[in-house]
Structure formats: structure tokens, C-alpha cells
Specification:
Elements (H helix, E strand, L loop, with lengths): L1 E5 L5 H8 L13 H14 L2 H5 L6 H22 L7 E3 L7 H7 L4 E6 L2 H17 L5 H5 L3 H17 L8 E5 H6 L1 H12 L11 H7 L2 H5 L24 H4 L2 H10 L1 H6 L4
Helix pairs in contact: 2-4, 6-8
Amino acid sequence: MLFVGGAMRSGTTLAARLLTSSGETNPLLAESQYLGAQLDLAAQWHGQFDLFLADYFEDAAAFDAFSRESCTRFLAVVRARYPRARKLALKHPETTRHFRRLAEWFPDARFVITVRDPRDTIASMVAVGERLAAKGERGSLAAFGRDMAKFCDVFRGYYADTFRDMGLFEGRMLILRYEDLVANHNDVIGELARFADLRIDPARLGDAAFWEKQSNWSRQRGSDYAGAFWSPDWIGAMTEAPVGRYRERLRAAEIAEIERRCADFAKLFRYW
């Protein structure tokens, strides 16, 4: 079992495309939002156990076991849906916030986390928010406008719990820098293949017809909400063109605020 996460707009789709390129896993699926919703529910009600659940479960551990079983049943359905898959590879940025819980529940699971220059990541988030607002869609990204403080909080929130204590993930997590992935294909892709124990076919990334056929992106592009997240990079070959694009999208003061608020992340991953 492979879980792919990271901040939205940080390269999670590229990592998932690589993992699903050889046919040894499930095809590239829609983001595992239902699993994310299950995890959100477990976290929410775990925090309110004494108030509302103590009458229904013997203790918090019993509720945790119930929540784990619910997720296990969903994953069993996915396995049955793709019986030829040697491994499942599921991607959803929002599940990153729950990787610690998944690591405890599923000891054999492995985790791939993508990181990307916060300036480029947030610039892409801003663009999504503007597209959502133009469509009249509600939600935090559309409401943020160009408030860099709020975007920085969202960005940092994806990684905060996982990076707080990495001991649980020893030997089970691979962190991929997006910039290294698009610039140093062979070395980084080889590392990903070894970690996942999968064959990876990077040449297939440029086969747009292949990705259109095996994904549900044609449906997503027709949605006002999901279509705002669409990127042509999702069906193309790897390219360094998106690196540094924030210079075209953000004002100098916005860049400076991101650099101030995300300085520790940037130092950790050598961005500035």
C-alpha cells in the first residue's frame, strides 16, 4: 500500500503518475477524497470522544479500532475493484494531515510526500483560488484572495503533523523535492522505484492519450470546482518550466511575505 501526499500543487499528481505508469498498481485514480473524509471524521470525533461518544464505545481505543476498520473496508473495496494490482497507490493531498494515523493503523504502508518551493506552490494555489472565484465557487482558496498569510498557514498545515516527529515513518517514507524530480529524472525516479518496489516508466508520462484514457480527467475538467485545479502538466512529460513561475504570478511584497513565513521550511529543503 502506497499513500502519496504533500501540499496541493506540490507535485503529488506527478508522483502518482510515475507510480502508476507501469501497470503494476491500480490506474491513476481520482483523488482518494472519500478516504480523506473518513480520516477527517475519525480525527474530529476522537477529539470529542468524552462529550459525545463515551456512551457508545467502551473507550477511545475502541472508537479508534472502529475507525480503522471502516477505512480497512474501503481499501478492501478498492483492492477488489483492481484485482490485478500488485499494490495500491492512492493520492490525495488532504490525507497528508493524517499520515501519522495511517502509519499507526497500517504498519506495512509506505508514504511518498512531495515538497516544492513554497513560492511556486502558493502561487499555484492563488491561481486556483482565482479560477474558483471566477466560477462563483465557494471555499477557502476562493475566499483568501491574495492573503499570503492564509495561504502560508494552509501550506504549512499539510506537513506540520508528519514532520513533527518522523520516527514513526523510519524506513517507510520518501520525501521527493519536485524540483529534483523534474531536473534529475533518472536518479530520483530510480530512488522512487526502489522505495516503492515498482517498475516506473517515465517515458509514458508524455503519452497524453494514455493518461486521458485511464483517468477521469475528462469529467473533472467539466466541473466548475474540480476543473479549477486542472493543469495541462497532468498529461504531459516532465518539464522544468513550472520551476520559478512564481516570479510571473506574485508581487514582490507577496514573495517577501512567503519567504518570511516559510523560512524554516525553505531552510530544511534548501529553497532559499
